[in-house]
Amino acid sequence: MNIKADTTMAELENLAKHFKDKYGIHCYQIAIHKDEGYKDENGTHLNNHAHMEFVTLDERGINHQRDFGKRLDGKKILSHIQDDVAKLLNMKRGVSVKTSKAKRIEPRVWAGLKEE
After folding, report:
1. Domain segments of the chain: what residues?
2. Are 12 and 30 in contact (CB under 8 A)?
3. Which residues contact 77 (CB under 8 A, 6 or more apart)?
4. CB burial of residue 95 (10 Å; 0-12, 13-18, 19+)
5. How far is CA 48 from the centre of its chain?
6. Is the confidence at residue 21, as pLDDT, over 80?
C-alpha cells in the first residue's frame, strides 16, 4: 500500500490490529519500503509504500480470501479495506476505477513504456 513519508510502523501495526478485529485476518509481516522511486528533470520522487502480509485462514483452517470480493453495505469488502487504510493512515482515499475509468498497466509494460 502507498504510505506517507512519515508513516510509522506503529501506525501500520494499528492497521493490522484493525484488520484482525474487523475482518478476522491476521497480519504476520510488515515491511516499510522507502528506498524505491525514480529520478527525472524535477528531482527524485520516492515511492513510499509498505507491504503487509496476511493469513486469511480462520481458526478452523477455512480460507476467507474469496470473501473480499463480496459486498458489505453495497460496496465490495476490498473497497472498505481501502477506505479503512486511508482513514487510519490519515491519507486521501483514491478515486474508484469505476469513476476514473483508469486502465491498469502491468508493471513490466509500465517499465517498457518508461524506457521508450
Report:
1. 9-115
2. yes
3. 23, 67, 68, 69, 70, 71
4. exposed
5. 12
6. yes
Residues 49-67, mean pLDDT to the nearest whole number: 89
Express each pLDDT in 104-116 by its tens digit: 788 788 778 777 7
Task: Answer yes or no: is pLDDT of 45 > 90.
Answer: no
Q: Put residue 37 in one of left, alpha, beta given phi > 0 → left and psi -120 to 50 → alpha.
A: left
Specify the 3-state DSSP secondary structure of 29.
strand
Q: Match 470473501 to its residue by C-alpha cell.
A: 67
3-state secondary structure of 104: coil
Rounded to two decimals, the pTM is: 0.77
Judged by DSSP in three states, 30 sits in strand
